[in-house]
Specification:
Layout (H helix, E strand, L loop, with lengths): L2 H15 L12 E8 L5 E8 L3 E3 L4 E3 L4 E7 L7 E9 L2 E9 L10 E6 L3 H6 L7 E2 L3 E8 L2 E8 L7
Length: about 160
């Protein structure tokens, strides 16, 4: 391969990955969590706990059907990552989001996340595998990077138990 082809290939890769391209955002230090309720029953965000910061009490947030809530979590300056859980309730049922983002690169390499039934944050964090989309009978977990913004989405989809 000649030098011109090699330089063109490197430039193409850099543009596709957003590396060294004017106007592109650098790797940020925040992870956005979007909670959507596409179901027919209300969902309550009962807590969020990102271990490096301790439990952050912001009060309970009620998400009615067709509603959503969005928040940003800053990475821990010492650990260089976001790790934690967010708990949800609907009626007497509990659900949990577990998340670990090591901020390795701009495309989300190493991110792990999942949603599960229950209220055991340690268990939820211990079983994280990857950032692939997870679908349950009651909701969906997904992760993506759009315009440089790292976003975890939890969507409650099925009718949940009544309160």
């Amino acid at each position: 391969m000649n030098k011109l082809h090699l330089i063109s290939l490197v430039l193409l890769i850099n543009v596709c990955l957003g590396v060294n391209v004017p106007g592109k955002l650098p790797l940020g230090d925040k992870h956005t969590i979007l909670v959507k309720n596409s179901g027919t029953k209300s969902v309550l965000i009962a807590y969020w706990d990102f271990s490096q910061r301790g439990q952050f009490e912001f009060g309970e947030v009620l998400i009615n059907p067709t509603g959503y809530s969005k928040m940003s979590v800053s990475k821990d300056p010492n650990a260089g990552r976001v790790t934690g859980t967010m708990g949800f309730t609907s009626g007497t049922d509990n659900y949990i989001l577990a998340l670990d983002d090591p901020f390795l690169d701009a495309v989300g390499t190493g991110v792990k996340g999942d949603i599960m039934e229950g209220d055991d944050p340690e268990l939820a964090l211990s079983i994280l595998l990857d950032s692939s989309t997870k679908v349950t009978p009651w909701g969906i977990y997904s992760f993506g990077v759009v315009n440089g913004v790292r976003t975890t989405t939890v969507e409650f989809t099925a009718p949940l138990p009544s309160s």
